[in-house]
């Protein structure tokens, strides 16, 4: 009997620029819908800039801690040699369908050429991650979400007949599958102590999680490094990478959502939400690729966002701490 199954996934996620973070965000927001604010208020606060990579120099990526009992997502990795994987799972199509039927999302890396020919491009041999969110027996294909070269999170079909090639046609001897499971019994909550810690990291350009790369610019310094990198592109007559600029705009949007949520609960004053909204609107000019002639205005808007955040964020942190103290058990 032919069947189809589609796991919840946000069709229009607010986060698309960093595909690794976008997949997780879209899974969470697709499952909890309008109730995602308590979760998002604690995420995507800090940022980093890594000049040594071209994959994602400017990043706001953060993973929901899978080892935490309060985490909304449970994570598991399968990392096996290809010959071992083939012994354990001789029918990968049946294996994928079984995993999906348990409500588990499958994230793995494969080449573009295994997707339908009408979306192939010059990067057909390029390896990139995609997340499998369902299957359709009528079409004999899996449903895959993947970021295209323009940083748009789009839906593709991976034919059953192509799955084996997609799994085994990789550069290394291993097959790595990342499994994500949404925990429906977990109630999204905001850890205000974590918010304070992450905001202080952002303000003071540091990262308190020691496992993160040391020496990279974080927080305000990361924003300054991003602006300088974009200016250098302009001086060479080049346009900045759209991916980095969209990450910048998304970071400011999430800060606006956070402050708006806190202001509605009287955790921070309304002026904090107003300032965050102003920053968000200024940052919107970076969402689409600007022309060379408009770059000076874009850089001026990005610089102004820093000035506004330097003024209102320290006071917002003090307000959150005051709210915590006034509501602490006595």
Number of helices: 10
Task: Estimate percent helicity.
Answer: 40-55%
Overall shape: it is globular
Regions with pLDDT < 50 over 5+ consecutive residues? none
Query: What Rg, in angstroms, do the CA atoms define?
Result: 21 Å
H/E element string? EHHEEEHHEEEEHEHHHHH
Fraction of residues in β-strands: 15-25%
Task: Report the major sheet.
Answer: 7 strands, antiparallel
The overall average pLDDT, rounded, is 88
Distance between the amino and carboxyl termini: 61 Å
Secondary structure class reads: alpha+beta
| Number of E-state strands | 9
What does this structure look like?
By secondary structure, the chain is of the alpha+beta class. It is built from ten helices and nine strands. It has helices spanning 19-32, 37-40, 82-88, 92-101, 160-168, 192-203, 219-235, 242-264, 270-283, 295-326, and strands at residues 4-6, 48-49, 58-59, 73-81, 104-111, 127-136, 141-147, 153-159, 174-182. Strands 1, 4, 5, 6, 7, 8 and 9 form a seven-stranded antiparallel β-sheet that branches. β6 and β7 (141-147) form a beta hairpin. The radius of gyration is 21 Å and the shape is globular. The mean pLDDT is 88.
